[in-house]
Amino acid sequence: MSPKIAVLADRVADQIAAGEVVERPASVVKELVENALDAGASEVRVELEGGGRTLIRVSDDGSGMDRDDARLALTRHATSKITDASDLIGVATFGFRGEALPSIAAVSRFELETSADGRTGTRLRVSGGKVEGIEDAVRRQGTTVAVRALFFNLPARRKFLRAPATETRAAVEALTVLALARPDVAFTLSSDARALLDVPRVDRRIDRVHGLWGRELADTLLPVELREAALEVTGFAQRPSQAKPAGRKGYVFVRGRPIKDPFILRAAEAGYRSTVAPGDRPSLLLFVDLPGDAVDVNVHPAKLEARFRDKFFVEQMVQEAVRRALVPLEAAAPIGGSGGDMGPWQGIGGALGGGVPLELFPGNGGAAGATRGPELLQVFDSYILFQTDGGVAIVDQHSAHERVLYEGVLHQLQGDGAPAQRLLLPLTLDFTPPELEAIDEHRELLRRVGFELEALSGRSVIVSTAPNPHPRFEAARCLQELVADLAGGRFGGWANRLERFAATYACRAAIKAGHHLDPDEMRELVVRLLTATLPAHDVHGRPTIVQLPRAELERRFGRS
Ligand SMILES: Nc1ncnc2c1ncn2[C@@H]1O[C@H](COP(=O)(O)OP(=O)(O)OP(=O)(O)O)[C@@H](O)[C@H]1O
Ligand SMILES: [Mg+2]
Q1: In what order do the strands lie in the sheet with 142-148?
Q2: How many angstroms separate the alpha carbon of residue 250 from the centre of ligand 1?
Q3: What's the 257 CA to ligand 2 centre distance in angstroms?
Q4: Any idea what DSSP says for residue 87?
């Protein structure tokens, strides 16, 4: 007997469709809060019981609905947000399908209370998709939706809900994402009467980040801001030195909508090139804004993806935006408690931006008679201190020289190479077989940085030329360490071969801690650091320079 085809009853079809929209309590929170935001709410309250299994209640002070609209809102494909397909281009509301409320109401005991004028109101009860009652209600303007017994009529689905704590965590995360998107709206979330999230409306996005995650994270973020053609990338990128291998926060918003886009995050990470250690993942919060017709948001059932007309351009711009965020010395880590204010570097930042650090340190190159910029002081034969407009800068001489060498060497590796010095007495050095292999493999790169090598016999190699990155450079030791690193796969996480080699060389050839520097050497190093492309970070993700803001000094001495 052939199977009989029958059209599903509407209610069953609704329950199946609901599966696309309502996966777990967190998706209910997402849909209801998005509706509240679309309705112009300035305050949204979320209450959970039993991890959302028992109750999810979302209240807002938005526009509310009159009775006819409330009734219609429960009808599939009823929406006030678009009228035809062309409205989808550039749609600015979170919702546009007219699916969320009917889907949620199909799989729960659902109650909607709403008033459009703050005088007359409607209470509407639905159970498993069936309207059970409509009555008058007294309430202020706005809407409250209560969702009880989620999936009570889909036992298989209900069984798959996780422990209440897990579901609660997912719901908090869903609300957090929307709270990041809308700092101008206040949000609270409580779970079994315990407040888990409570953020007031704020003017600046960084204050919202602070409200959600605390100062500790907020203070590690650098502002991102790039405008190019009609594209705008803003937000925050974490200071490279604070990146960790796990637990980073990565969020992308496109036209104000949270989007899961690993490619954009990867592009942003590419912007960190040579400032974070391989494996470390910086936190990123990026807001990509572009004209509505340059992106399609209607490509995913939960609207979590977007399709760009020119994805490559968007990724390029995101990468560039992050790279630029790391350039100014404001990116240098502050020490002391007064982080968060990001502008104590006017003197140096300006010098950098205008490319005039030689004005700051006119002694370099013999600008005769002019002031030589701030006094430099070396301490512990390792750090260089000097005064800036905003406070005191402290440079780590090894990290700084590493950054300077890295950028210079990368340039040389891409070109003909550096001028090398012929050694009066060629060196003879012994290496292990894997090291000899590494030498063979990198012979041309070694030549370009200045090492000319020739196999002698057995394990010996003759070195006839060497670079001279600084007066205390020890060619033999540097080469031995460099070759050992190459053979041992150090910097293995670096994808680009030239960058990997440059980083290894820079690390081994740079001035070490413990070397005494004379004033001219210090000055030259600082000037070269301030003219580097990414001056504030070395190639291991450590800072090259930290700032002690003057305000922090004043705070400590009770002057402010
Ligand atoms: N909190 C609310 N305040 C005011 N109106 C609301 C609220 N929630 C829903 N509505 C109205 O009900 C309609 C249906 O909501 P629903 O979430 O089902 O669809 P949508 O938001 O239009 O699209 P989507 O399915 O993509 O979310 C909305 O278009 C809106 O007019
Ligand atoms: Mg909606």
Answers
A1: 130-136, 122-127, 109-115, 142-148, 55-60, 43-49, 186-191, 194-199
A2: 28
A3: 13
A4: G
pTM passes above 0.70: yes
The H-assigned helical ranges of 354-396 are: 357-360
Q: Whose C-alpha lies nearest to ligand 1, atom 19?
A: 98
In this structure, the strands spanning 333-334 and 545-549 are: parallel
Among 307, 312, 303, residue whose Cα is nearest residue 295: 307
Q: Write the residue with the smallest CA distance to atom 21 of ligand 1.
A: 95
pLDDT of residue 482: 95
Distance (angstroms) between ligand 1 centre and the Cα of 148 equals 19
The CA 378 to ligand 2 mean position distance, Å, reads 62
Mutate to test the pocket of ligand 1, among 14, 22, 38, 66 (most ligand atoms within 8 A of CB): 38
Measuring CA to CA, how many Å separate 335 from each of 104, 176, 219?
Answer: 50, 29, 11
CA atoms of 231 and 321, how far apart (whole Å): 11
Q: Residue 511, Cβ neighbours under 10 Å: how many?
A: 23
**pLDDT at position 330:** 62
What is the per-residue pLDDT for 458? Answer: 87
DSSP letter assigned to residue 102 = H
Is 98 near ligand 1, meaning CB less than 6 Å away?
yes
The whole-number mean pLDDT for each consecutive block of 10 residues of the chain, a chain of 560 residues, reads 74 74 95 98 98 98 96 90 86 90 96 96 96 95 98 93 97 98 98 97 96 91 93 95 91 95 93 85 96 89 89 95 84 61 46 37 46 84 90 93 93 84 92 95 94 91 94 93 91 81 94 93 90 87 87 88
The pLDDT, as a whole number, for residue 18 is 73
Exposure string (b/e) for 523-548, b if CB count within 10 Å is 16 or more?
A: bbbbbbbbbbebbbbbbbbbbbbbbb
- Give the residue from 75, 68, 44 showing the smallest Cα distance to 57: 44
Q: Is 62 touching ligand 1 by the criterion CB < 6 Å?
A: yes
Q: How far apart are CA 306 and CA 389, in angstroms?
A: 45
